[in-house]
Specification:
The chain has 13 helices and twelve strands. It is an alpha/beta fold. Helix 1 packs across helix 11, helix 3 runs parallel beside helix 4 and helix 9 packs across helix 12. It is globular.
């Protein structure tokens, strides 16, 4: 049984990690968050220690080590801008780290993490769960089996409605979250790279706090993409079913079944990590560079490369 520590225990994504630790028959030794709304821990590990001050958390980790009960993994679920320092905290103690997406905000920080791995002999694992989704695995196999000169045309749409709190939290700050495309989109760009190869062209057609749209060319695909946290962009079929999240990948004229199959992906990620097969730092490079460019480059006119929902956003 391995001992885990979680940083960012009060966040949205932390319960998936608690579940994964429990489902893989391991133990949560200690958790930390500056917020104390962490009652969900009781459903998984009611005996886990908890701290709201990082210094207390750090002291407890070091105390366990001195007693021969060293933590085996530190899980980073903290706000995006804290990831590097929290990963460094684990690596400096020789503890392997599991970090939520995005691993970093800027591509040069990947080199920092690689250097830290070498210095301290510990490993950084990232959660790139869409690579494990059955529909994505099947699509990747289809692309690999297709003629090498075949280029696929895709429309990618992801709308996940968020209230006013979102923009008033750290997630609404580009400096802290990396902006919309980074915070909610980075795992989709990783998925696209994983299936269709290297990015050849990247342009942005619209970008504000609540929506973004653009066009990407990969070695094997042309992709029109649209991301939004604005509920007004939800399609009628989602609204009719009271769904606040809408995912769609259309390849040519066919819809990829992509509405379910997400619940166990963190568990599968942990299973791979625990046997040393998880995704490391370098696997993140393409997606981090993609969102970094989306965040920083100038917006251009969309022309024929526009996503079908872009006109509604501009007009609205």
């Amino acid at each position: 049984m391995k001992n885990f520590a979680v940083i960012g225990a009060a966040g949205y994504i932390a319960p998936r990690h608690f579940q994964a630790i429990k489902m893989t028959k391991n133990n949560l030794a200690v958790a930390m968050d500056i917020n104390d709304s962490v009652g969900v821990i009781d459903s998984y590990f009611p005996k886990a220690e908890f701290f709201t001050e990082f210094e207390d958390f750090s002291e407890y980790i070091d105390k366990l080590t001195s007693l021969g009960k060293q933590v085996d993994y530190i899980v980073v679920c903290s706000p995006n801008f804290c990831h590097v320092k929290h990963i460094e905290f684990g690596l400096e103690r020789g503890i392997d780290v599991i970090c939520e997406k995005p691993l970093v905000l800027c591509s040069n920080e990947l080199e920092t993490l690689i250097a830290l791995e070498r210095s301290y002999g510990a490993k950084v694992y990232s959660i790139l769960q869409l690579r494990l989704h059955p529909s994505i695995i099947a699509l990747r196999q289809k692309v690999q089996n297709a003629p090498k000169n075949k280029i696929f045309d895709l429309d990618l749409t992801y709308i996940t409605a968020r209230g006013k709190w979102y923009l008033r939290s750290w997630k609404g700050s580009d400096q802290k979250s990396g902006g919309l495309s980074t915070n909610i989109g980075v795992h989709f760009y990783d998925m696209l790279h994983h299936i269709f190869g290297e990015v050849k062209h990247n342009e942005v057609h619209f970008r504000d706090k609540r929506s973004a749209s653009g066009y990407l060319e990969y070695e094997r695909a042309r992709v029109k993409w649209f991301l939004s946290i604005n509920s007004e962009n939800l399609p009628n079929e989602a609204i009719a079913e009271n769904k606040m999240t809408y995912r769609s990948i259309v390849i040519g004229d066919r819809e990829l079944e992509f509405s379910s199959g997400f619940t166990d992906l963190h568990v599968q990620s942990y299973q791979s990590i625990l046997v040393g097969d998880g995704f490391g730092i370098s696997e993140n490079r393409a997606a981090i560079k993609t969102v970094e460019r989306i965040r920083n480059q100038a917006v251009v006119n969309a022309t024929s490369k526009a996503h079908s929902l872009l006109e509604n956003v501009i007009r609205g």
